Amino acid sequence: MNKVILHCDLNCFYASVEMLYHPEFRNVPMAIAGDPENRHGIILAKNVLAKKCGVKTAEAIFEAKNKCPDLIIRQPDYDSYAYFSKQVKDLYYQYTDKVEPFGPDECWLDISESIKYFGSIKFIVEDLLRRAREEIGLTLSIGVSNNKIWAKLGSDLATENSYFVISKLEDIGRLPAENLLSVGKSTYERLKSYGLYTIGDIAHASSNYLKSILGKNGETLWYFANGYDLSSVKKYDDSGDPIKSIGNSSTTIRDIYDLDDLKIILKVLSDSVASRTKDANLYYKTVHLYLRNKKLEGRAMQKSLKENSDLSSDIYYSALDLFKENHLDFKIPYRSVGVAVSKLSNIKETSNIDLYGNIEYSLKEKSKDIAIDNIRRRFGHYSIGNLRVLEDRELSHFDPKNEHTVYPVSYMKGR
């Protein structure tokens, strides 16, 4: 393989962290769940024993308890999860500087240039598995391939604390088509109605035929099945000079099923992007919204403002307008949300004045943004925030600015 991509996935991440602090949970079914008193009593993660009992992520606590009456429920400890997520990423950086996170527990690594220093792919992968287990106390499943899509599939096929190599179509051709990214239940049923049951069936069909029965997604599936994804693994902070865009994203702690939850994520991300824009003494003209649903299907939208701005509120309301103007819904819940700004300038355009003498760019809003940023610098990120955001700490408990989780470059755009 000319290019060597790893996809590293921490096994039962949240539950594994809890078991590090509480070894007594290793031999009992245990799950991490939101606060049932705060309308978020859903399963966020579970250990292997709970999984064997049929407990599923995103189901209600009472449903999980019906399947597993002895299930132990733990409240999430996000600070600990963030700490261990960083520890693992720091480990990855000892092998390559090309590390692209996909949430707190998954990362792509490009080790193509690292092999000559470490000797072999086998050494790097086995060393990662060993060190994660011995030095951090967590286990990985690693997929190895020449592209990001097959590497991700490889980590799904690997068992705990092991790796799976996919180097050619024959390695995965007989797998059910539903194993492929972007093939959900309805898509799989439609594929079967046309006699396409396996990944190999998709790969050997023509892209035009797949497009005729599934639309653009059919063409995407053909690329994925054949391993023709050419997108590169981006560095964690892969920004150029001069800065062309500023953005943050979040792979959410739970799937986003409604507009209320989406607003919380948009507010946190908008505050972060606006703060970073002001730190750079820049103004933006275009706002971008990125969404990826639980099937890993992505959407990208953008809109330009009448005048450039550096306000959080302009980002937030523009992103919200984009969602509504594109007639999006929550039939398939969202897993990742990203907000970005572009067309940056260090010069503020003249403010527009409407018929009633109102200035569109609000100096009052800017003063509020600056005051919030100053409070956070002095007392910490979580010291102040929108009331609705503070009420739902489960969903909003992340700091995109200081953690600098730059929105991932979509492999669906990069091929």
What does this structure look like?
This protein is an alpha+beta fold and 415 residues long. Helix content is 41%, strand content 19%. The strands form three sheets. The protein has a five-stranded mixed sheet with strand order 5-6-1-7-8. A four-stranded antiparallel sheet has the order 9-12-10-11, covered by helices on one side. 40% of the residues are buried. The model is unreliable at 404-415 (pLDDT under 50).
Biggest sheet, spatial arrangement of strands? 5-6-1-7-8
SSE topology string: EHEEHHEHEEHHEHEHHHHEHEEHEHHHHH
CATH architecture assignment name of the largest domain: 2-Layer Sandwich
- Provide a count of the helices: 18
**Low-pLDDT ranges:** 404-415
Please tell me how large the radius of gyration is: 22 Å
CATH topology of the largest domain: Dna Ligase, domain 1
Given helix and strand content, the structural type is alpha+beta
What is the total number of structural domains? 3
CATH class of the largest domain: Alpha Beta
In which range does the helix fraction lie? 40-55%
Label the overall shape.
globular
CATH superfamily of the largest domain: DNA polymerase, Y-family, little finger domain
Q: Mean pLDDT, rounded to whole units?
A: 84
Report the biggest beta sheet as strand number plus sense, adding barrel if it closes: 5 strands, mixed
Q: Span between N and C termini? A: 18 Å
- According to DSSP, the number of beta strands is 12
